[in-house]
Fold this protein.
Amino acid sequence: MDRVVYERMSALEEEHWWFAARRDLIQAILNQTIPDQGAPRILEAGCGTGGNLKLLESFGSVDAFEFDAAARDIAITKSDLPIAPGSLPNDIPFSERSYDIICLFDVLEHIEDDQATLTALASRLASGGRIIITVPAFPALWSRHDERHHHFRRYTRRSLEAVAKSAALRIDQDGYYNTILLPLAVATRAFNGLLKRDVADEAMPGPLVNKSLYKIFSTERHLIGRLRMPFGLSFFAILQLK
């Protein structure tokens, strides 16, 4: 991604409604995936500026890597973890280690060869290990936002399942999310497109709007594992070896 995007991400990810609510959903997924006992070995592949590392450390021992040097420096400062340089699919560090949980939070859409990426990460799973993925959903929702963030694609359940299958993985659990706010997001992006306005939709809104959007999005954490939504701006999947 562009350097300005990383700088904006670092400044916003503690309080911006989207980052904060997504952490709540990730926590809900991890609560259902990780047993109460034991400390799993966790790898975050493409940790960006480190906004999820504190959460992951509350569940187990964490390794992380990041391709972009500027983002990696921010993550090291933020987490005090030795974030390694690395890239997907061919330069994954910590070659001597295997992991119980591998996390790809809005990363796979940035990788041109997603099949090779999942294959490489699958080879690093410990027995019974899982890969947890979040990705943007539905190609029809493609927008300037995807172009700004250098996405190669958006996914559906079927398309992600096909890539996982080709990497000898199966979907153990999945679901669309950021469903309630989908109509608002579609309308906002359509309006900006009609006016040909290049607006960064990750910019920090006013405090009242930010708090309201956070509460709306965050409520969806209660649906994880209970109700599968038929659509949403994003999609999550928990993958296991076949």
Q: What stands out?
A: The mean pLDDT is 91.
